[in-house]
Amino acid sequence: MQGHDDLHQQLLRVQLGLQQLQQALEQPPLPAPPVPSAPPVSPPQQGQQRRLATRRQLESFRRAFRRLTADGTFPSERQNRLFLACQKVDLDWDEARRFVQPEAQAIYHRCASQITVGRALTAEDFAELQRLQKRLGLPETGPLPAQTTITQALRLRRRISPLLLVVLAVLVGGAGQCGGICGVRVAFGQWRISAVLADGGKVPSRRDSQPAEGCVPVLNRAGY
Q1: In degrees rounded to 5, what are phi and psi of residue 118?
Q2: 96 in helix, strand or coil?
Q3: Could you give the CA distance from residue 187 to residue 154 in angstroms, rounded to a whole number?
Q4: What is the pTM assigned to this prediction?
Q5: Tens place of pLDDT for every residue, the chain, 224 residues?
Q6: CA-based nearest residue to 101, from 136, 54, 69
Q7: How far apart are CA 146 and CA 169, in angstroms?
Q8: Rounded to an integer, what distance in angstroms lies between the CA atom of residue 133 and that of residue 96?
Q9: Edge-to-edge strand order for the sheet containing 181-187?
Q10: Residue 193 forms beta bridges with which residues?
Q11: CA-based Rg of the chain, rounded to a whole angstrom?
Q12: CB proximity list for 36: less than 8 A, separation 6 or greater
């Protein structure tokens, strides 16, 4: 009889436990503890973060620019690659080119010196330098020293052309018995125009009082 009562008590305790478990399951879950939010970023901090991000993009652009211009040239294909890279990361193209202006000037001077050394400058050479200047984003106001020299040379050449016609007429008179004139050279400091004769001799130089600046290539019979 005692064993039957003990079993009955155990069944009651089990039933009570099941009821408590069922009540616990039916109750709504307790809300999760709030997650602490990050402190708000002030406008000055936001501006500083944007500047730091832009600076990193500009440094990356400079590394890419130096890598693409390591051979001292900057054709339009490389310009397009850099432009598309700036668009991809939303980097201002003009700002990026201003950031690498020292490197761009070095490339411009190098190309200008290669073009102008050892031969006469042509109009196509000058046009190519102007296109290179635009691709590099160099300012058009206040020409660079190399371009200034080129511009002065072309301007001087146009100015002396009418004068050469007059001087040649005078020189031909003195060179008629020497085989004729095969070339004319313009020197600097003053307008010094001398004729080189076919037999290697020279007609005495004629000077003009007006000073000249720049440099002009040798002019031959073809006019260049």
Answers
A1: 85, 0
A2: helix
A3: 15
A4: 0.50
A5: 555 667 677 777 767 776 776 666 666 666 667 766 666 656 777 778 888 999 999 999 999 999 999 998 899 999 999 999 999 999 999 999 999 999 999 999 888 888 777 666 677 888 888 899 999 999 875 556 556 666 665 666 666 555 555 555 555 444 444 444 444 444 443 444 444 444 444 444 444 434 333 333 333 333 33
A6: 136
A7: 35
A8: 15
A9: 181-187, 191-197, 206-208
A10: 186, 206
A11: 42
A12: none
Length of the chain: 224
Q: Which two structure tokens, joined as six digits, stand for 59?
A: 């440094």
Sequence ranges of the domains in the chain:
53-142, 160-224
Sign of the four-CA dihedral 153, 155, 156, 161:
positive
> Which stretches of the chain are DSSP H helices?
2-26, 43-68, 76-88, 93-99, 101-116, 123-136, 145-175
| Residue pair 208/191 in contact by the 8 Å Cβ criterion | yes
Which residues 6+ apart lie within 8 Å of 131 measured at CB?
A: none
Residue 92 identity: D
Opening angle at CA 3, ends 2 and 5, nearest 5: 65
The two three-digit tokens of residue 136, written as one number = 């590099």
Task: Assess contact for 167 and 160: CB atoms under 8 A.
Answer: no
Q: What is the DSSP letter of 213?
A: -
Q: Count CA within 13 A, CB hemisphere, residue 165.
A: 4
How far from chain centre, in Å, is Cα 187?
A: 36
Cβ 152 vs Cβ 209: under 8 Å: no
Question: Could you give the CA distance from residue 224 to residue 221 in angstroms, rounded to a whole number?
Answer: 8
